[in-house]
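2024-03-11 09:14:02 DEBUG pipeline.ingest accepted 1 chain
2024-03-11 09:14:02 DEBUG pipeline.ingest length=417
2024-03-11 09:14:03 DEBUG pipeline.predict start
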Amino acid sequence: MAGALPEGDPAPADGSLPESARIGAEDRAFGVYVHVPYCRVRCGYCDFNTYTASELGGTSRADYADQVRRELAFGADAMRRGGIPHRPVSTVFFGGGTPTLLPARDLAAMLGGIREEWGLAAGAEITTEANPDSVDADYLGALAEAGFTRVSFGMQSAVPSVLATLDRTHTPERVPLVTRWAREAGLQVSVDLIYGTPGESLADWERSIDAALATEPDHISAYALIVERGTKLAAQIRRGEVPAPDEDLHAEMYELADARFAAAGFSWYEISNWARSADTRSRHNLSYWTGEDWWAAGPGAHSHIGGTRWWNVKHPGAYAQRIAAGVSPAHAREVLTPEARREERILLETRIADGLPTDALTADERRAVPGLIADGLIDGRAALPGRGAGAVGTGRVIPTLRGRLLADTVVHRLLAG
């Protein structure tokens, strides 16, 4: 299970939103995230808000779809009462946990609740995460029939010893099967990889890259392993049972992945994400990086509407009690100041290939741009006024490959002015 939730201001029991949340809402896209907190086993590296069967404390997975639908109805009502203009949902993402541990009819029912409360925009992107061993061809066909458009498989690695270190339950041979079944059902396919697992060599990582590309996905995510406090993996490293991750090897692995993905026709659009085309980018994830609005349902889920952010109680039992009582499941919230939102925009938009407009920076912050160009951390041509992609009269702060590897440095230097 994840650590403690962040502290914040009290969240209103009726879900009411401040007046600031509706300012400019008509210009922002609206998405929905559904957290499904169930896992068959706990992976040793994971600190997400997930629960195995023995940790549910008497709550039942069979009731979960109905609980989420009730939160969705609560959310739609709260937004109406807050004067938030109606917007159909442009993206939906079911994450976890393992959403596909639930029957496909339950995912379809929750998606149906989203349709009923807000409606779906034309061409809406609807994704679920899935473990390779949690679905079969019939299940994927049922998702497509229900309206899902995309599935993201947690492949992680093609090397059995690496999967064992990560406590993954599938075999490498399963991934080509499920990706083929998904394509045959008419779903876009994304595969998620993790690099830098203790004991993983560069040759192991190259083997996983090759295996991922062989599945002919539409989208690939590749994340550096982060050792989170309180996880089984952190304890193993502390006891000396496995080696700590090597940052230099992480960088070498990232550079190899970026080169191999590019050679296969993929373009990076966020530091850890590559797509075959603009049409196969994850629009839902882009909405997080560009500050759009989303309602997030489920235990521990984090929502954002117009600079107001709140997070639900963690445990499925506590969540079920709040839903049954007809009150907000939110644990706490924060209302970001305009300056905090501006700084968060710098943090997020300097991670994406579309970049950050330089006119979003203060005069002091813009003075850092020439040094970042000189140090090879941002694209000098894009930073020139009128030269950035789609820009008129302004440049863009777009990280180079070196800048992607040193993303925190880019942000620190900009904010330091």
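2024-03-11 09:14:41 DEBUG pipeline.report The longest strand covers residues 120-130.
2024-03-11 09:14:41 DEBUG pipeline.predict end
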